[in-house]
Amino acid sequence: MVTVGMALRAAVSALEGSESAALDAQLLLAKVLGKPRSWLYTWPEQPVAASSARDFEGLIRRRAAGEPVAYLLGSREFWSLSLRVSPAVLIPRPETETLVRATLDLLPPGPQRVADLGTGSGAIVLALARERPHWELHATDRSQEALEQAQGNVRALGLAVQLHLGDWLEALPACRFDALVSNPPYLADSDPHLLQGDLRFEPRSALVAADDGHGDLNRLAAAAPEHLGEGGWLLLEHGWQQGSAVRALLRARGFVAVETRCDEGGRERVTLGQWPGAAHG
Ligand SMILES: C[S@@+](CC[C@H](N)C(=O)[O-])C[C@H]1O[C@@H](n2cnc3c(N)ncnc32)[C@H](O)[C@@H]1O
């Protein structure tokens, strides 16, 4: 008979070499048993049914082969939300909360119309919807599968977001927005990180952009003014070494009040700029 404690010890040894072996094993066993993680600490002597032990071993084998824990669990925490994720979408990253915070900081709390471009699981727009339920929120993605995943999260969380399938801003309705926010693909296709960790399993179309990683950032900066109201904001997440290039890009396109916000690790992560007009002195 296998107990909870025995199953966890065997899993940690199978995952040896992974920094998060103990945590991964606990999360996966808690999922298989349908219990909170704290239950595992309280009941290490509880027997694990043979079928659950087999399911758990299967998940541990996949994790040992590198599959991201978020895909094995089918969910990831972002902001204050539990989001469903599948291999059709990027796994939301904690750095992206910088973009959510910057948007909440910049816009006055009254009614606003905001679009999240390339929404994936819906992480950014759903965090905004949770914090500002009275905003008119839109989100786009070029991937039908990603948009279905976002739709599932919108429904599961009971939040109001209008979703649109299509290429960047072309998918949006013909109206002006108070802010356009995006975490677009920004890696060069030669980036060595693509061969490491979770990135090996995530959709390339969510990660890689043309022109050495700058292609989608350029396209968004070029197209945004057509869809921004006077004084509207564009906020772009980017790689930590792309800050100065994105600041130069936004200034060259005519944006003002351009600045970069750092993530929790102190790395340049989100560059924003305001479309000049009445709201800008
Ligand atoms: C880096 S992921 C970001 C996903 C999500 N916003 C997040 O932060 O977790 C980029 C997303 O942009 C989408 N995308 C890529 N090219 C696009 C395009 N031309 N038009 C619309 N969406 C696009 C991808 O499908 C992917 O979902």
Give a topology summary.
Layout (H helix, E strand, L loop, with lengths): L3 H11 L6 H13 L3 H6 L7 H15 L4 H5 L1 E4 L2 E4 L12 H10 L6 E5 L5 H9 L4 E6 L2 H14 L4 E4 L11 E6 L21 H4 L7 H9 L4 E10 L5 H10 L3 E7 L5 E7 L7
Parallel strand pairs: 3-4, 3-6, 4-5, 6-7
Antiparallel strand pairs: 1-2, 7-9, 8-9
Helix pairs in contact: 1-2, 2-4, 6-7
This protein binds S-adenosylmethionine (SAM).
The site of S-adenosylmethionine has 22 residues, from helix 7, strand 4 and helix 9.
Account of the 3D structure:
The protein has 281 residues and is an alpha/beta fold. It folds into two domains: 62 residues, Helicase, Ruva Protein, domain 3 (Orthogonal Bundle); 196 residues, 3-Layer(aba) Sandwich (Rossmann fold). The chain is 38% helix and 19% strand. It contains eleven helices and nine strands. Helix 1 crosses helix 2, helix 2 runs antiparallel to helix 4 and helix 6 crosses helix 7. The mean pLDDT is 96. The site of S-adenosylmethionine has 22 residues, from helix 7, strand 4 and helix 9.
